[in-house]
Predict the structure.
Amino acid sequence: MALPKNAYFRGKIVPYSDAKVGVGTHALHYGTAVFGGLRGYWNEERKKLFVFRPLDHYRRFLQSCRLLCIDLPHTPESLTQLTLDLLRVDGYQEDIYIRPLAYKADEQIGVRLHDLTDELTIFALPFGLYLKNPTAVHVTISSWRRVDDNTIPARGKVAGAYANSSLIKTDAYRAGFDDALVLTNEGHISEGSAMNVFMVRDGVLITPPVTDNILEGITRRTVMELARTELGLTVVERPIDRTEVYICDELLLTGTAVQVAAVTKVDHRPVGNGVMGPVGEKLRQLFDDVVRGRNAKYAHWNVEV
Ligand code: PMP
């Protein structure tokens, strides 16, 4: 993976190689950081880079900050502006991933959230596909459980909670799967290691509710809106049982990194007839047009660099 060119760090834009923290940094030891993940899409016809829904991403980022008592002197608008300033210096003419991170920056021993200094960094790097074959993904059901709201809130993108995601991902990968779905402590499907999940049953698009320990995904919200408005589908948020994904007609993963991917096998069982279905195919196409600024109706989600 290519390294970022520059970073917003300690209040200014510096070469990425100068954006360094000490090994004693609180966040590095205790996971006391929150992050975001946005994408910028290069539109080749218009020769423009569009950031997708930055205000919504930064609203969630600031909510994650509140959960960890991180106090940034910023609004969604000012964070979007910082990101655009950085991207203008970077000058990327390709698809990118943008990573804002807010962290407890003191080089101090001692678990807590209070009386520590909060810092912010943002950087971007070239980024393509996250899963190698997004139209034929094979997942398993993880033997790990999703972090619970009363353990580490999954609705915040808390750095420490990504040890849970990493356990889920690596065990699935080493067992030969592309990714895994993970259950709540009650045994309902929550989400993937770093993506939300949807299933189609009898023509209805169903996704777990925000109370089932999911990250409240921006892509999830986007797909719900596109499915309702453009495909005329009924979209329902309700708990999903483990065995429902063995008998559903289609299964989709959504997220900034994974975008919209079709799961065609769960635990070696074919989903539907084992190939991407019509809802997945239509949503993938629609999503790509929308994020690249090719659909005027949703142009308000594309912020030009
Ligand atoms: N769940 C988890 C655990 C994630 O890390 C992500 C990626 N940010 C998502 C879901 C998808 O969220 P979004 O669509 O906002 O990227």
Q: What stands out?
A: The mean pLDDT is 97. The chain is about 25% helix and 30% strand. Residues 137-291 form a domain with the D-amino Acid Aminotransferase; Chain A, domain 2 fold (CATH 3.20.10.10).
